[in-house]
Request: fold
Amino acid sequence: MPEPMKIGYAREQAASLDTQREALTAAGCERVFTDTISGARSTRPGLDAARSHLRTGDALVVTHLDRLGRSMRGTVNIAAPARSATATTR
Reply:
């Protein structure tokens, strides 16, 4: 079984993508996926790609929870499928 990976996700808004990428790399993320579109949009190709790369034991890492969703409900709706697939969110 392969070693678990940390998969990073960054979305541009207040914090620049470069700052988020640097923080995710420093946190040990092997891959970092990004989006430059609003979190209000239901389709985010970078987030979809990050989630599709998650395997059992992997962790989806973000710099701030608001990078996943604009509300608590939105964040939970995005994080829950990752957790149920036996990956974790950090």
User: Anything to note?
Assistant: The radius of gyration is 12 Å. The first strand starts at residue 6 and ends at 11. The first helix runs from residue 17 to 26.
